[in-house]
Write a structure and sequence with these properties.
The protein is of the alpha/beta class and 466 residues long. It folds into two domains: 17-114 and 268-465, Aminopeptidase (3-Layer(aba) Sandwich), CATH 3.40.630; 116-251, Roll (Aminopeptidase i, Domain 2), CATH 2.30.250.10. 30% of the residues lie in helices and 24% in strands. It is built from 14 helices and 23 strands. It has a nine-stranded mixed beta sheet, with helices on both faces. The longest helix has 20 residues, at 27-46. It is globular.
Amino acid sequence: MSESLKGTEILERLSYSKKNVFEEADANEIKAIYDYCKGYMHYLDVAKTEREATAEAIAMAEAKGYTEYKFGDKLVAGDKRYFNNKNKSVVFFNVGTDDISEEGMRILASHIDSPRIDLKQVPLYEDSGMAFLKTHYYGGVKKYQWTATPLALHGVMVKADGEIVKVCIGEDDEDPVFYINDLLPHLGRKQAQEPLGTAIPGESLNILVGGLPYNDPDVSDKIKLSVLSLLNDKYGVTEEDFLSAELSLVPSFKAKDIGFDRALIGAYGHDDRVCSYPALTALLDNMDTKRTVMVVLADKEEIGSVGITGMQSDVLTDIIAMISKSLGVDPIIVRSKSKCLSADVTACYDPNYADVYEKRNSAMISCGTCMSKFTGAAGKSNTNDASAEYVAFVRKLFADNGVIWQTAELGKVDCGGGGTVAMYIANHNIETVDLGVPVISMHAPYEVVSKADVYSTYKAFCAFVK
């Protein structure tokens, strides 16, 4: 290195620092960022559950010419298909012309479930002049955040004859909303002394749904009957139909710009729709690629990726096998040559809670999509720890395509941790690393992200698949 260079010049050449996307972008790109996020915010409002996200994603893909795939269908290069897995997860794929025995597949894997409040199977009861629904929360929630908050009811009730009744109450301006009671501070002195994790017991997350008695003096549980009567009039269901229902309470809030400059987005369900939407749009905006590309929008990540619609099911490998069989290639070879980005969020550094972050290795707001080489907890338990070679491959890919990105881990060592679908995909001998948007207040009923980071993630996924 030339001795004529000043120390500041040498420092700039040799050191690493994060870049702010907004500071690096020109006026045209900032407009592109804001425009792209309008579509994302619409997606958030219409896809608050995994069923709704599946339906909306399929509609977006069908508008671009994708058709449904059934196991056993013959596939050929040029096919653009989707596999609808029980209406709760979905896999999209383009069959390319490149030799998958040499190139493998490019896979973007995200999840579309979010923490929420689910109804129990026998939920409805009356007590002290009010009707309630019993619940069991889903995923990692801070229970106190869900009290005294307007909630909407989403899901399906399936009658004994198989008829599926879709339910969505609380989203339209004229709809009623639902509510979990909280204790007034005047009587909450003992509650206020409890740890946050136990101050609100799970069994007390009961949903307030009614207060009008049925007009019949001879009926007991008049308010419960009033609720059942209203449900029967609107949906044709009875109390027994709750037994075969999947009904959830989610915040009734809409996605909104945050801040005077509208640089941030507040919404329910950023985790992980803030990655699933860029993954899907990157696929749909790069349909002419010669590569074979797959986008997986999975369910059940928030409770361990279990079940038939979770990432631990065999659906991913079954579809890879079907594509490989149609093209006359051994799926074991295809998996070994494939590459995946596990598209999931990470924690964004919050100066209000700085003591749980290690700042040098934290994701900073508006500094681009974030790679997490590993997640897990404590001594990297239950994680996919991506190889240095694969990280370098992704790093070069982003450099070649002008993607601003950063790297981080999920908080200080021994402060907690978290997991993604990455390790389940890596178990199939597929190179995988986590990449996604930093989120403030993750798992809260209303989370916050930067529009710059959403768009950076979209650009990263485009670079990966094209």
